[in-house]
UniProtKB/TrEMBL annotation:
The keyword Aminoacyl-tRNA synthetase does not apply. GO terms for molecular function: serine-type endopeptidase activity. This is Serine protease 37. SUPFAM superfamilies: Trypsin-like serine proteases. SMART domains: Tryp_SPc. PROSITE patterns: TRYPSIN_DOM. It comes from Prolemur simus. Pfam families: Trypsin (PF00089). GO terms for biological process: binding of sperm to zona pellucida; germ cell migration; positive regulation of acrosome reaction; positive regulation of fertilization; protein maturation; proteolysis; regulation of protein processing. InterPro entries: Peptidase_S1_PA, Peptidase_S1_PA_chymotrypsin, Peptidase_S1A, Trypsin_dom. One of its GO terms (cellular component) is extracellular region. Residues 1-19 form the signal peptide. Keywords: Disulfide bond, Secreted, Signal. Residues 9-233 form the Peptidase S1 domain.
Length: 235
């Protein structure tokens, strides 16, 4: 399935569309979690660790890094199996709370211009801050089921008070809400805006089934720093 996104950003208008020329945006920290089910996106946070939504714990999972285009190879491609998956202890399929998991790779990722780790935010972000939404899309030439194109767009962060007033945000604690200035007019896919990057640090990861309309709900990852560090420290 291909997703077309229209989004008015601040004073101007920005959109993802399958035009004749598609530019891949710079997002070397994104990894694709490939399985036989719905596509998911994670973030490389250390040489051998990926942070991802817990609802992306899927059978036959493979972690893909670097170039995602199957028809064009550039030497950056890496596919690594997970050797350990740690879901946040309080995660439940029936609740959107604590939708995080850590994936340990079978071997360290080889860094290059398309594979780089992203540091995690250690504090909250101020409301109104314009952050980068980073995810994956389908290129015009791609008729398959797996995305192959990194895409970024900008959107402002909402205050906690505003977030809790929304239909999506009121039932999710530890949340980060992002305001899409204009409602998406086509099919909306969570894989396309899977992460929130503020001041060059990972601030949010999408919450399963809580995307859509004019508000995006993300897990505010700074509140989980101690859990992440405890489980990923060198032993």
């Amino acid at each position: 399935m291909k997703f077309i996104f229209y989004l008015s950003i601040l004073a101007g208008t920005s959109f993802f569309a399958h035009s004749s020329v598609q530019k891949e945006d710079h997002a070397p920290y994104l990894v694709y979690l490939k399985s036989h089910f719905n596509p998911c996106v994670g973030v490389l946070i250390k040489t051998q660790w990926v942070l991802a939504p817990a609802h992306c714990y899927l059978p036959n999972l493979k972690v893909m890094l670097g170039n995602f285009k199957s028809r064009v190879r550039d030497g950056t491609e890496q596919t690594i199996s997970p050797v350990q998956i740690i879901r946040y202890w309080n995660y439940s399929h029936s609740s959107p709370q604590d939708d995080l998991m850590l994936i340990k790779l079978a071997k360290p990722a080889a860094f290059n211009h398309k594979v780089q780790p992203l540091p995690i935010a250690t504090s909250n972000v101020r409301p109104g801050t314009v952050c980068l939404l980073s995810g994956l899309d389908w290129s015009q030439q791609n008729s398959g089921r797996h995305p192959d194109l990194r895409q970024n767009l900008e959107a402002p962060v909402m205050s906690d008070k505003e977030c809790q007033k929304t239909e999506q945000g009121k039932s999710h604690r530890n949340s980060l809400c992002v305001k899409f200035v204009k409602v998406f007019s086509r099919i909306f896919g969570e894989v396309a805006v899977a992460t929130v990057i503020c001041k060059n640090k990972l601030q949010g990861i999408e919450v399963g089934h809580f995307m859509g309309g004019d508000v995006g709900i993300y897990t505010n990852v700074y509140k989980y720093v101690s859990w992440i560090e405890k489980n990923t420290k060198d032993k």
